[in-house]
Amino acid sequence: MIHPLVNMTIKGAIWYQGEANTNYHQEKYNCSFPAMIDDWRMAFHQAQEGRRLSISLLDLSRNSTSDAFPNIRWHQTADTGFVPNPRMQKTFMAVAMDLPDEKSPYGPIHPRDKQDVAFRLSLGARAVAYGEQDVAFSGPFPSQILSTPKYLEITYDQKVSVTPSENIFEICCSESESPWDPKAHWVPAPIMQWVPTTVQLSTSLCSPTEQVAALRYAWRHWPCDFKACPIYSATSIHDCGESCQNVTALLFSNRNKKACLHLLTLSPKSLLYVLLF
């Protein structure tokens, strides 16, 4: 697929994720996707004179009622929950899970709003590929999570704009304090209150004999309506300025289908767009 291009000098590539990977070797995607990026960088290495190719990726919006879509979003990041990370350096992601289009004539998996997607990708390209300073391309990131018997307190690395939600956050309740426990289970963690950089969540749905073993956010195929997720950067919400990118799309623990751990060769339906810079 890329062989005709490997003698060209390009700055980066955009991977527009295809929905077939939600089923096609999904549980291997956390390995095969980073491996594909490594392979592309090796292929372009000579033409790039040793410069590392920047790779951007887009997460998927709604098309399912199963865990397949949050699973593939997680695997897109090599099971880290964010990019760039140590396994996927010089990469960036544009969040699209808050841009659903249920009435799209092409089906909800093909939302018509590409302007926001393109804008979010451009912010990441400017910051990661071109090294521009002071470009806000990343959403609120949790810098600390404090656990008490009655609540969790999440402190973010920037000011946040919060909308109340009963179920966007979920906690894993476990009697052994481990998310690997076979009896561990996920329950909603309602937002109780918040201040500029901190959000407090209720843990009351865990029984008195259980501890909170893990926390996750927006773990569903369609977590929120159009630009209406509960946690955004406070700097410029909804204005298609720098924080149209800044929906918190982070997932805060490893997963597996047997307990609280949710947890590919690449599918031909994953579309490749190469940018020539």
Q: Would you kindly provide a written description of the structure presented here, covering whatever features stand out?
A:
It comes from Dissostichus mawsoni (Antarctic cod). This protein is α+β, with helices and mostly antiparallel strands. It folds into two domains: 150 residues, no CATH class; 104 residues, no CATH class. The protein is 14% helix and 23% strand. It contains three helices and 13 strands; from the N terminus they run βαβαβαββββββββββ. The chain has a four-stranded mixed beta sheet with strand order 3-2-1-13, covered by helices on one side. It has a four-stranded antiparallel beta sheet with strand order 4-5-10-9, with no helix packed on it. A hairpin with a 3-residue loop joins strand 4 and strand 5. Helix 1 packs parallel to helix 2. The longest helix has 16 residues. It is globular, with a radius of gyration of 19 Å. The two termini are 19 Å apart.
What order do the strands of the largest sheet run in, or round the barrel if closed?
Answer: 3-2-1-13
- Characterize the overall form: globular
Q: First CA to last CA: what distance? A: 19 Å
Count of discrete alpha- or pi-helical segments spanning 4 or more residues: 3
SSE layout:
Layout: E1 12-16, H1 29-44, E2 54-58, H2 68-76, E3 91-94, H3 115-129, E4 142-147, E5 151-156, E6 160-162, E7 169-174, E8 185-188, E9 191-195, E10 198-202, E11 211-217, E12 231-233, E13 271-275
Parallel strand pairs: 1-2, 2-3
Antiparallel strand pairs: 1-13, 4-5, 5-10, 6-12, 7-8, 7-11, 9-10
Helix pairs in contact: 1-2
